[in-house]
Write a structure and sequence with these properties.
The chain is an all-alpha fold. It is built from two helices and no strands. The protein starts with a helix and ends with a helix.
Length: 63
C-alpha cells in the first residue's frame, strides 16, 4: 500500500512539473512571437498566438 502511495505522489509531481514547462514555453514563445511581429510590422496578435503554440510544444517536448 505504501508503494502505491509513493508512486502516486511521484506521478503527480512529474505531471505538475511538465505543466510548468509547457506554460513557461508558451509564455516565452508568445512574448517572442509578439516581439518579432511588432519589429517586422506584422500582426502582434497572430505572432503571439503562433509563438505561444510553438513555445508550448517545445516546452513539452524538451521537458
Amino acid at each position: 500500500m505504501k508503494t502505491i502511495a509513493i508512486s502516486t505522489l511521484l506521478l503527480a509531481s512529474a505531471v505538475s512539473l511538465s505543466a510548468c514547462s509547457t506554460l513557461r514555453g508558451a509564455a516565452i514563445g508568445g512574448a517572442g512571437g509578439a516581439g518579432v511581429a511588432a519589429a517586422t510590422g506584422g500582426s502582434v496578435e497572430k505572432g503571439a498566438a503562433v509563438g505561444g503554440v510553438g513555445g508550448a510544444v517545445v516546452g513539452t517536448v524538451v521537458d
